[in-house]
Amino acid sequence: MSIETPIAPAQAYVPLRLAGRPLALKAVVVLLGVAFLTAASWVQVPMWPVPMTMQTFAVLMVGALCGWRLGVATVLLWLALSVPLPLLSEFKTLLMVATTHGYLAAFPIMAAFVGIMAERGWTARPIPAALTLLVAEVTCFTLGVAWLSHVIGFDKAVAFGLVPFIVGDLVKTALAVALLTVFRRTLPAQ
Question: Any idea where this protein resides (predicted)?
């Protein structure tokens, strides 16, 4: 009979620390997240067929800051509200942006993945955080380009829906990692 030392799970790093908090506070955070996603959608560089926005940055941050449950809830509420309301880039509704449905469908998956990884401690340090966020970005581009391929063809989808966005998304990922690092250094330990 051997005695094994239990391995301590990685310490979660979800800066907003909402576990066990009142439902009303969580609802306020979700609504603030929806406002953040909307504002990030309206910050854009016009491009065709998909404009470059700060949406992916906002999705990454919502997942990392809120954890997977509230992160996904925030993104799903924002998407639901964007059906009738002009919350997306160029003040469009979800029904007006057929070319971006693949990217938008990836957002809840991104928030879930980043949130799960944050809850496992992966966003507490810069290198694991960068890897986590890059995997989320790859997920977004995979679904986005797959959908766009059905609309304009694979070669054009890669040329117009992936290549022009790589540098921008690397910058957004670096910004998210930098902010998470600042939060870790400035907020008290969990």
Answer: Cell membrane
